[in-house]
Design goal:
This protein is an alpha/beta fold and 139 residues long. It contains four helices and five strands.
Length: 139
């Protein structure tokens, strides 16, 4: 390695919290992200994620855009107000479910439409973790 080269952190140095109402989706993301070396914790609702917040070890959130118990903007706002600054990636089932991004504070790093291509998921997560540059347009 040459002097001045940037050492890129390894995935196992990062933890991702996944919140989705669908157990199969949570298991799928846990297997995929865990297989890539990330530490993964899953939650079946926004409230369960909020309840875990005091002990949550997460560097990034992967959230269903329309959780049944709390809106994604409200969830992110509550996390932010609790003093946690966690970048987020939102997922929506189709274009008709796209949330109004102007109501988010803080703003999500990316919004992905399902089915999500693996390379798009990893690009969004790497951007959220600061491992890559800005994302190019819409996924």
């Amino acid at each position: 390695m040459a002097t001045g080269d940037i050492i890129k952190p390894l995935p196992e140095e990062f933890a991702i919290a996944v919140a989705d109402r669908d157990d199969a989706v949570r298991q799928s993301f846990s297997a995929l992200l865990g297989g890539a070396g990330y530490q993964v914790d899953t939650y079946d609702s926004g409230r369960s994620l909020l309840n875990a917040l005091p002990s949550l070890r997460a560097d990034c959130l992967l959230l269903e855009a329309h959780l049944p118990d709390i809106s994604a903007p409200r969830l992110l706002r509550d996390i932010h107000q609790a003093g946690r600054r966690l970048p987020s990636v939102l997922m929506a089932d189709h274009a008709l479910e796209l949330p109004d991004l102007t109501v988010f504070e803080p703003n999500p790093v990316a919004l992905l439409l399902r089915p999500i291509k693996e390379n798009c998921l990893f690009s969004a997560i790497e951007a959220a973790l600061g491992l890559s540059g800005p994302l190019p347009g819409r996924f």
